[in-house]
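Q: What structure does this chain adopt?
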Amino acid sequence: MAISYEHDVAAWAKEQVTLLRAGQWALLDVDHNTMKNQREAIAKLLQKMPSLRQVLEEVEWDEDVWKDALDIGGREADLVDLPAIREWDYEQVLKDGYLPS
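A:
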């Protein structure tokens, strides 16, 4: 990670996209990345509404969410060759600091 978020956010964002496209997960700036923010928001929701965990286990919902994620990843970050089926379970994905390999 050569460009700091604090120094130049636009250049930082461009670098982050380049790292995403290259699959360089370990080099991403997860402290300033939205994944951390999203994980925190999801954790808060699950604490307030524990019954939502059941929804995470519904196959149809899971397939719809993953399809949306593939679409967004492709359009917004030009990510390609993403797996057609999500390879990571929700407990794993929601762990602080987790990045797919």
